[in-house]
Design goal:
The structure holds 3 protein chains of 3 kinds. Chain A is an all-alpha fold. Chain A is built from 15 helices and no strands. By secondary structure, chain C is mainly alpha-helical. Chain C has a domain at about 70-135 and about 175-305: MetI-like (MetI-like fold, Orthogonal Bundle). Chain C is flat, with a radius of gyration of 25 Å. The two termini of chain C are about 20 Å apart. Classes of the chains: A mainly alpha, B alpha/beta, C mainly alpha. At the A-C interface, helix 1, helix 4, helix 5, helix 6 and helix 8 of A face helix 1, helix 2, helix 5, helix 6 and helix 7 of C.
């Protein structure tokens, strides 16, 4: 008994060492470039271009942040993106749960066919032109809906949610509820949703992040600057490599653009990722709430 | 009488302040407003980051009041591939606006949507009848009409005029004059001398820090004419370089004036010699290994290191990678180097004569209800007057007409003077590069400039580039080997045929080039099989199509 | 156990299904909204797939465009490099799946096992952050880190006596750079789903395991891993449904003259060929080919999972 304990401790220690080492390694590997980005955003553009920044800010200045907050396009984009994120996440979550719950129930006759129906859309698509025509014919072009609707539903997320429902909501619970005369509506609202905090938080986060980082729908369907999301604004500022140099009007023009890009480059990364970063701790809170179900299963 | 005197005094005062020094030829010949009733057009346009909001811009409202034309802007992204995506989709879905402005409609799209599908409006008659300013410009520049004309003989797009003199000879090399002086060397004139100079740079510690950290020659992949090989290759065979490059999908070609043939450089024996020269430089560590992979961002950081570590670099202008104000000392070290004479006596610089006019800046779709008003609206922009208002803003506030005695960049009488300092923030005063530009050479050189300016200051930039181009590059502007113009028109069938050839040929040629230069393969041993493989991949077929298109458009009829 | 038995064969099966459907009509009602959504936004546009066999004409529309048969497929497969392009795509994709599948799980377990709350929270936030760096900036960072003069990695190599190395110029290194930078960017984000699943494991279960004398490793193996196994399997199967669809932007931005032999993949090739002519037919045809391969791989992965007794997607 004693020797076994000793053995266990030793292997435990090795494992702990490995896992902690892994954690420290990744945290540091990831942290360094992030610190660099942060420092670069707080340094003078000259110092960054000159390669003088490697860890801490050089010639510290808030100029970049001032420029970001003076830029009305960025601010408007920020507001628009927030709206798209909130609205879009709500719609997407609803669609996902409404699909995942029935498909997780074995009582749903024709479940296989219905599942296949959804899966098929994950693999095959009609392409951009007909999708564009659908959006146009629905009268969604150049509206908020054109940004949030065309990719509101992800089969991938639905399947993850469905799997969670299948494994974490015990069949016994469903059967008991059925015997009590509980309707499917009621069961979804009163049992499934309260027990699915973690998965809803994760899927919601995935949708929110997708909407926040996304620009493609806006690129295709939005025609006025008023509705531009942040990422589209940033792309136009940051993508300089496609500048056609042979068409250069004059150098002051080019220098101005390069200056703007190098000044804003790092500050906008910080500003643009802040809201989604701050959302994360709130999401984490939901991770502990699913505990009860596991206990029941065990 | 008193009235007359008063008028005279006022006029004199005005002339003294320069406000009324404009000449009739600078003004637009287009009668305003272009329409009695207010007309509105929907125009597709990329969103420009330097303009805060196109709908609330000074020039937008000023021009609307002047022309009586209202524009509903359909914004597209500015970045090339995204712009192309949206353009294609809008057209594919039959969702046509009245016009496309700056939509990057190249010769291929013009053929497809204009010639084949009839979605664009032919403008030949409209130009002759309703566009006096553009007509005057075309009369003065007879070559431009040929560039504008589609494969069916019609004109579907209006040009963008940007007569940038030094851009016509943009394949420049910049060499560290301070290092040359320190080592007692003269500017090299031949490829052999250049090799010796680079060797000295590498070995003799010209930056004097006691370390062998010098990079003799460095380039990058995404800047202007910054590929490390093209300038040097021109001493062997004409390499047009990065000028037109869309990523790496451009087969390097030239037009041989003696034989009238379109040639690819890839299978020329002269190209082989050029590659061997590059191999020699690389093998001796004279070319920085990152040159073929790094981007402008990294380039700037390396060149900015103290003390300076870079001996020579190719670029359209040194200012692209060095800041004349913040890095003044370093910026002054680099001077332009004339093309080098190759072993066979070839000394040349590609002359990009087609860069003057960009094609299809404004394209009108067939669904436009009132094309006459729209072309009139566009025509006024082909005048110095509207160019000034468009690119700079309000007269007297952002710019003024030049006063008597003020001189331009070329030392001749100036046309106008700038009144606003630059700022990096997006602004609402003018359209800058948006719309149709009319940057004629006259207008560019006509900007009032301090004479006798320090060439290596920020103010002296344009003068320096002009001088360098005139003295060092123009004498060697390619005469026997010419560029193949960008605006070469292909029929749809031809375009279909070359589309895969282009990608395949280029990928293979570039891959081998790198192997020969880096030493991954022996060029002497492989050459015959390399040329054979190029032909197997369809090089001759590709060239035949290019030749046909060239002869059709520019050949003697 | 379950309220329904395995359905009998024949007519009575239909009858049983109908009875079941009647009793659970609410499930169908709930499903109606997502069904309407996919009908409208996914199935309605499917007619566009015919463009794979047509030469698209903007003035005639999709239906009116002339048929060209298998022209685009022939064009693609006749090109001398199509095989290499497909192989490049497959290898970069499978490599990516292997790495991006395994490491987020380890990270999630490590985070879950970490006892120091503050560090754990910080580590979670930090590893999640890079996901918000846009591709353009990300590629800029990669070039920076790998630059022969400026970069940390080549400087470390040089310090270890390796001489000047240009990793971006090595066709062999390209796929590794792509994959591991992808892991760097996505590890924290991908770990979230496993963290959520691990959060569902009850402390009682853990305690019971401890009382039973389980070591930490045994607990991870017998409690934690089984708890997240369904998620792991689903994620793995799903990723096989996207093998051919390697994103275009990052690869394209990372391409240069020196690595083209291994960095040309289907999406960049389609971009280069299609860009010249705005050729929707070509893009649609290759897209269709990709989908078919993806479907085959997905079916195989699913079958393999079932055979291993791990359930599946359907």
């Amino acid at each position: 008994m004693r020797s076994r304990n000793l053995y266990v401790t030793r292997s435990d220690r090795a494992l702990t060492l490995f896992l902690d080492g892994f954690l420290w390694f990744w945290t540091l590997v990831v942290a360094y470039p992030l610190v660099y980005v942060l420092s670069a955003s707080l340094s003078s553009p000259q110092a960054v271009i000159g390669g003088k920044v490697w860890l801490l800010p050089v010639e510290p200045t808030l100029r970049a942040y001032q420029a970001v907050f003076r830029n009305k396009m960025i601010l408007a984009g920020f507001a628009n993106s927030t709206l798209y994120m909130v609205l879009g996440t709500a719609i997407s979550l609803a669609l996902t749960v409404f699909a995942a719950f029935p498909l997780s129930r074995r009582e749903l006759a024709g479940r296989k066919a219905l599942n296949a129906l959804f899966l098929f859309t994950m693999i095959f698509s009609g392409g951009m032109i007909p999708t564009y025509l659908v959006v146009k014919d629905l009268g969604l072009r150049n509206t908020v809906w054109a940004v949030v609707l065309p990719s509101a539903f992800s089969v991938w997320n639905m399947i993850i949610t469905r799997t969670y429902f299948q494994t974490n909501i015990p069949d016994e619970l469903y059967e008991a509820a059925q015997l009590d005369g509980c309707s499917d509506f009621r069961f979804l609202r009163r049992v499934v949703l309260p027990l699915s905090g973690p998965i809803l938080a994760v899927i919601g986060l995935y949708y929110a992040v997708g909407l926040w980082n996304g620009y493609f729908n806006a690129l295709l369907y939005i025609d006025s600057q008023r509705l531009y999301p942040l990422q589209l604004v940033l792309r136009d500022i940051l993508v300089l490599s496609n500048m056609d140099m042979s068409m250069m009007q004059d150098f002051s023009e080019m220098l101005r653009k390069q200056g703007l890009a190098s000044l804003l480059k790092y500050a906008v990364i910080v500003v643009a990722s802040l809201p989604v970063m701050l959302a994360y701790p709130f999401v984490q809170r939901f991770f502990v709430k699913g505990v009860m179900v596991g206990a029941m299963k065990g | 009488m008193t009235k007359r005197i008063l008028a005279l005094v006022l006029a004199l005062a005005a002339a003294a302040s320069g406000a009324f020094a404009q000449k009739a030829e600078w003004l637009s010949k287009q009668p305003m407003p272009v329409s009695k009733e207010k007309v509105a057009f929907k125009i597709f346009v990329p969103q420009r980051p330097e303009i805060e909001d196109i709908t609330r811009n000074w020039f937008t409202s000023w021009y609307e009041a002047k022309t009586n034309v209202h524009v509903d802007w359909q914004l597209a992204p500015n970045e090339t591939s995204a712009l192309r995506q949206k353009l294609n989709l809008v057209i594919a879905a039959g969702d046509l606006p009245d016009a496309f402005l700056m939509a990057n409609i190249d010769a291929n799209l013009e053929t497809r949507y204009g010639v084949d599908e009839g979605l664009f409006l032919p403008l030949n008659e409209l130009i002759d009848k309703h566009m006096p300013n553009l007509k005057a410009y075309l009369a003065k520049n007879p070559g431009v009409r040929g560039m504008m004309t589609a494969i069916d003989g019609k004109i579907y797009g209006l040009p963008n005029v940007n007569e940038c003199y030094h851009c016509g000879l943009s394949q420049k090399m910049w060499i560290n004059k301070a290092w040359l002086d320190k080592l007692g060397l003269k500017a090299p004139t031949t490829t052999e001398e250049f090799y010796q100079v680079l060797k000295a740079f590498k070995e003799k510690d010209p930056n004097g820090n006691g370390k062998r950290d010098e990079i003799a020659l460095m380039g990058c992949t995404d800047s202007w004419q910054s590929y490390v090989d093209s300038f040097l290759m021109c001493s062997f065979v004409l390499d047009t370089g990065m000028q037109y490059s869309f990523g790496n999908t451009e087969v390097r070609m030239y037009y041989d004036a003696k034989t009238g043939k379109v040639m690819s450089i890839y299978d020329r024996p002269e190209y082989k010699e050029g590659l061997k020269y590059l191999r020699r430089l690389y093998a001796e560590g004279l070319i920085y290994s990152g040159s073929f992979t790094q981007k402008q961002d990294q380039f700037k950081q390396i060149i900015a290191a103290e003390p300076g570590v870079v001996g020579a670099f190719p670029n359209g202008a040194s200012v692209v990678v060095l800041d004349p104000v913040a890095q003044s000392a370093l910026y002054r070290q680099y001077v332009a180097l004339a093309p080098l004479k190759g072993p066979a006596g070839l000394r040349q610089s590609p002359y990009y004569y087609d860069g003057v006019a960009g094609i299809n800046r404004l394209v009108i779709s067939k669904s436009c209800k009132d094309p006459v008003a729209l072309v009139k609206w566009a025509d006024a922009m082909y005048s110095h007057e509207i160019q000034q208002y468009r690119a700079w803003g309000e007269l007297g506030k952002s710019w003024r007409w030049a006063a008597a005695g003020e001189k331009g960049l070329d030392g001749k009488d100036a046309i106008w003077a700038n009144l606003v300092p630059y700022s990096a923030d997006p602004q609402s005063l003018n359209w800058q590069q948006l719309g149709i530009e009319f940057q004629s050479a006259e207008n560019r050189f006509g900007q009032a400039t301090k004479q006798g300016v320090d060439l290596y200051s920020a103010e002296g930039l344009e003068t320096m580039l002009m001088k360098a181009t005139k003295e060092l590059y123009e004498p060697y502007a390619g005469k026997s080997q010419l560029i193949v113009p960008k605006a070469l028109r292909f029929s749809t069938a031809e375009a279909d045929e070359i589309q895969t050839l282009l990608v395949e040929l280029n990928r293979y040629a570039v891959d081998r080039k790198m192997a020969y230069v880096m030493g991954g393969a022996d060029i002497d041993k492989e050459w015959a099989s390399y040329v054979k493989k190029l032909n197997d991949l369809g090089l001759q077929k590709f060239l035949a199509i290019q030749q046909k298109a060239y002869d059709r458009q520019f050949g003697k009829k | 156990m379950s309220s329904i038995e395995a359905p009998p064969r024949g007519r009575s099966a239909l009858g049983a299904a109908a009875r079941l459907a009647r009793r659970h009509w609410q499930l169908y009602l709930i499903l109606l909204l997502p069904l309407a959504y996919v009908a409208l936004f996914n199935y309605l546009p499917m007619y566009g797939a015919q463009l794979a066999f047509k030469r698209f004409s903007a003035s005639k529309g999709i239906a009116g465009s002339p048929w060209v048969g298998l022209r685009y497929f022939k064009l693609f497969f006749a090109s001398p490099s199509s095989l290499r392009i497909i192989l490049n795509t497959l290898s970069i994709s499978l490599y990516s799946i292997a790495v991006n599948f395994l490491f987020p799980i380890i990270l999630a377990v490590a985070l879950n096992e970490s006892r120091r709350r503050a560090f754990r929270k910080a580590a979670q936030m930090i590893t999640y952050a890079p996901y918000f760096i846009s591709t353009v900036v990300m590629v800029g960072l990669i070039l920076q880190v790998l630059d022969p003069r400026l970069g940390i990695v080549p400087r470390l190599v040089a310090a270890l006596g390796g001489g000047e190395t240009n990793l971006m110029g090595s066709p062999k290194a390209f796929q590794s750079i792509y994959v591991w930078s992808g892991l760097w960017q996505g590890i924290g984000y991908s770990a979230i789903i496993y963290l959520a699943a691990l959060a569902g494991v009850s402390p009682e279960l853990q305690e019971a395991a401890i009382i039973d004398g389980c070591s930490r490793g045994q607990r991870i193996r017998h409690v934690d891993i089984p708890a997240i196994m369904p998620t792991i399997v689903i994620m793995l199967i799903l990723s096989f449904g996207f093998v051919m669809s390697v994103g275009f932007e990052k690869v394209y931005l990372m391409q240069n003259d020196m690595n083209l032999s291994s960095s040309e993949i289907i999406s960049t090739y389609v971009y280069k060929v299609g860009l010249v002519n705005a050729d929707f037919g070509f893009a649609t045809a290759i897209g269709l080919f990709n989908s078919l391969v993806n479907l085959a791989l997905l079916v195989c992965a699913n079958a393999a999972a079932r055979r291993a007794g791990q359930g599946g997607l359907w």
